[in-house]
Design a protein that fits this description.
Blueprint lengths: L8 E4 L5 H11 L17 H13 L4 E7 L2 E10 L8 E8 L8 H15 L5 E7 L4 H7 L3 E12 L2 E11 L1
Parallel strand pairs: 4-5
Antiparallel strand pairs: 1-2, 2-3, 3-4, 5-7, 6-7
The structure holds coenzyme A.
Coenzyme A binds next to strand 4, helix 3 and helix 4.
């Protein structure tokens, strides 16, 4: 089979994607314990998702990306920029890929796309992320150039247990 990375499409989301994204989040949240909500419990309605996509597409320092494979959404990345004039250079993102396609380099491809977009953006100077301390994604983030900067205590509460997050960043 040809490399899957050559067959995916990475593009900006539009408001017509809202329903598909709500369905996507409701499904993938059951595939990994690192999501902040359970399967089928995504906390946004289609209307709210539409509104978020619309707002993000209007902001010069924010980005909502989807990954398509064979006409299906199989991944996403949401990057949100700060609003205040003195902190607008700073952005934070979250990423996911559906489990059946993990470890094929798609996450890497999506991060590379996002980093280039940020570098081409005159405003953005710092990319941030928070990742649960036991998430294998830390290796991937380090591979694309993120550095550990700190710890956020009690980031997540799940299964009667608190988990800290590693805070990571990239200077542009
Ligand atoms: C994190 C995530 C987006 C990575 O996507 P992906 O398409 O599988 O990523 P890639 O295939 O580009 O890279 C996977 C890398 O992760 C690391 N990795 C994957 N599985 C691993 C494991 N079980 N143990 C250790 N490292 C692992 C490796 O560094 C691998 O890189 P390699 O090319 O050197 O093997 C995906 O696993 C996911 O959606 N997870 C659930 C949601 C999530 O945790 N999001 C991040 C929240 S901060």
């Amino acid at each position: 089979m040809k490399n899957i990375k050559d067959k995916i499409i990475i593009r900006k989301a539009n408001i017509q994607d809202a329903k598909k994204m709500v369905d996507y989040f409701n499904k993938v949240s059951g595939e990994s314990e690192f999501f902040t909500f359970r399967e089928g419990e995504y906390y946004k309605s289609v209307k709210e998702e539409k509104e978020m996509i619309r707002k993000i597409n209007m902001e010069s320092n924010s980005l909502y990306l989807v990954v398509e494979y064979q006409d299906e959404i199989i991944g996403n990345l949401i990057l949100k920029g700060e609003r205040g004039p003195f902190i607008r250079h700073s952005v934070e993102f979250g990423i996911s890929i559906c489990k059946r396609l993990w470890n094929k380099g798609i996450g890497n491809e999506l991060l590379t796309y996002m980093i280039k977009w940020c570098k081409d953006n005159k405003e953005i100077k710092k990319i941030n992320l928070a990742v649960r301390e036991d998430n294998h994604a830390i290796k991937l983030y380090e591979k694309v150039g993120f550095k550990k900067e700190g710890v956020r205590k009690k980031y997540m509460y799940r299964f009667n247990k608190f988990y800290d997050a590693v805070l990571m960043g990239m200077d542009l």
